From TrEMBL:
The keyword DNA repair applies. The gene is nth. Residues 44-192 form the HhH-GPD domain. GO terms for molecular function: 4 iron, 4 sulfur cluster binding; class I DNA-(apurinic or apyrimidinic site) endonuclease activity; DNA binding; G/T mismatch-specific thymine-DNA glycosylase activity; metal ion binding. This is Endonuclease III. Belongs to the Nth/MutY family. InterPro entries: DNA_glycosylase, Endonuclease3_FeS-loop_motif, HhH-GPD_domain, HhH_base_excis_C, HhH_motif, Nth. Its cofactor is [4Fe-4S] cluster.
Amino acid sequence: MGDPHTDPAEQAETVIERLETEYPDSTISLRYSNRLELLIAVILSAQCTDARVNAETEHLFETYRSAHDYANAPQEELAEALSSINFYNNKASYIREACEIIVEEHDGEVPDTMDDLTDLPGVGRKTANVVLQHGHDVVEGIVVDTHVQRLTRRLGITTEERPEAIEQDLLDIVPEGYWVQFTHLLIDHGRAVCTARNPDCSACVLADVCPSEKGDGEIDLASGDRWD
């Protein structure tokens, strides 16, 4: 087991410092060229890999170019275009309905407030944070996806379980200037090393400060389960 800092803020600072060295080019991996494409991509990314989303949207964005296009697309047609995406029927419905609202209430433009974004079908706080940060350059929160949720618990930065509660913890722990980059760093590390089922603790630059480190630790703090 590693020897973590007792102060969560110090723990977060060490995590940021080391992961910045490990992943110097860390950034959002979804591909998009405008705010609408970003919104669509993030809706599609729920419970689906960014790589799969990028493969699908390469063709999707050539066919549908405006909120009006999505809003007027037949459900069956849009669902078929998204058929390789997890839960594609639901996501097609979310996208169509969200774009109807964007056309009717926002003059076809993706809104730029948390309230307006989370009023759209299929858009929760995580999605809204991504769109605000990368589409509008508005940073008012921290994106908590499954990687951030897992790693912040595994590293002992938070004991909260729900994404909303984890975010509130992190807002008081992570320096505001790192609210965006913190997410990208943890996502990269979660994909490369600290995976959900079989983290490679022997290759982890955070092993010595991780209370879940498999060498000596018995419990995965992310799940509360014993290591196999």
